[in-house]
What we know:
By secondary structure, the chain is α/β, with parallel strands linked by helices.
Amino acid sequence: MPDTTHELPWTGVITAITLVTEDLRATKEFYREVFGLPVDYENENSAVFRFGGTLVNLLDATAAPELMEPAPVAPAGTGSRQVFTLTVDDVDAKCEELAARGVELLNGPMDRPWGIRTASFRDPGGHIWEIAK
């Protein structure tokens, strides 16, 4: 294993996350309606939303290879490998709000063994979002 004792640590923050979606229009509308956020930037292949200091870039699947090559773009529906967590003041109240907006919960609200209350749902692109307190 190489000696890494003299390398500088990664001290920056995550400024942007790109999520691939097969239906950019539906996913963009979901984010506008469910999260109540305006589109920060958009073009024909993407829509960007600002979550505090982090940009979430929704990218049309047809444009993803240019960003990821030579790595392959995984097809939709092959399973989830990430969860994005948003802190809320009241998980139960937010679940009621999500239900009123037609969002189906995957799980929760529930108390986790590590001391937080959570609930999870999926966006139209298949990405898992968790709300937690």
